[in-house]
Amino acid sequence: SQVMSIAVAPFVRTERFKLYCGQEKYLIRNNRTVRASIAMIKSTLIAALLVFWGVESFTAPATARRSSVLASTVEAESPTVGEPIQPPLERDRYVATNRFEVRSGRAAKFEKRWADRSSRLATLDGFKYFQLMRRVSLDNPSNSGIDPQEGEAGNYVSFTIWETKKNFNSWRTGDAFKEAHGGTSLWAFVTTMISSARVLKGAPKPAMYDGLLQQSIVPSSVPEVVDGWRSIEANGKDILPAESFIAMNQFFVPPANGPAFEARWANRVSKLKECEGFVSFSMLRRDVKAKGHGISPMGEEEPTYTSCTVWKSKECFEAWKNGAGFQEAHGKKDGGETKPKQPPAPLWTKPPVPVFYEGTLVISSAEGA
Prior knowledge:
Helices cover 25% and strands 23% of the residues. The chain is built from ten helices and twelve strands.
C-alpha cells in the first residue's frame, strides 16, 4: 500500500485518502481527481505486468565469434539455384517464447522465481514441451555459473512448444495463465513488478513462431511434475542444473525468399533421429502476425528463421558435431576434406548466426516435443 500511496501522491489534493490494496477498496473524499488517477495507475500496472509475463516463454542475436565452423554446427546450408517456387510450409507446431535480459549476478534468483512459480502447464491441452534457456558460449563448460551472455534480445528465453496455435491462445486467455502469473489481485501485480525490476533490465520481449519440419523422439522417460509443473529446490544462489543443450542458427531471409528457403530445408535428408541424445528439431519461422500484450513488430535486425535443435546434453551435441553424420551433412569426406561442388546461391542477406543455450526446468509430454 505504501508503494501505491507514493505512486498517487502527485495526483492527491485532498484532506483524506486511504488505499487498501489487499481488498482493492478505496475511500476517497473531497476530490474526484484521485479516483481517476488511481484507475489510471491500476490500469497501467496491469498492462505493464501483462507485458512482463506475456508468454511462458527466444534467441538473442549473437555477440560471440561467428566463425564458419560455429555457423555450420547447426546444419546451415545455402539453398541451391533453380529450385521450383513453392508455397510456404504449413506449421507443425506453435512455439511461444519470451526473451529476458537478467541483471548481472541475478541469474540464480531469476531461475528460482521460475522454479517456485505456480503453473499447471503440463496438464493443458496441446502442451508438448517447455524449457527455460540460459545463453552460453560454446567454450564454457556445462553449469559454469558464468553470467549468461548478453545480447540485444536478452540472455534468457522461456521456450514452450504447443501442438497448435489454438492451444496456445486457449492457455493465454484462460485461468491457467492468470494463476501462473500472480493471480488477478492488485497486490500481486504490484509485488511482481517490484520483484521483476530487481532482477531484469527492461521488459521481456515475446516472440512467436511457426514450428516447421518438426522432428522429435518419444522420450524413454520424462521429468516428474507435480500438478503440471516441476518441483525443484532452488536456493537463489546457485543456478539450476542443465537438463538440455540447444543449438540454434539464425537466418536473415527476406520475405520474398522464404518459400524457396523452406523448400530447401524440406528437401534435405536428415539423420538427426539416429543420433544419440537427440530430442527435437524445428525450423522456427517468425509469426509476424502475432498480437498480444508486449509483442512488438519484428525489427530489421531480427532473424526471420531460426533452426532449433535440442539435445539431452552438450556432450551429445559435440558427439554429433564431430561425427560422420555432421561431416556428411556439410559436404565433407571422412578425412574432413570438403567435396568439390558448385557454391550454392544464398537466399539470406547475411551469414547465419549461431547461438547456444543450456536448458533447465524441462517439461515434456509423454509423446515428446
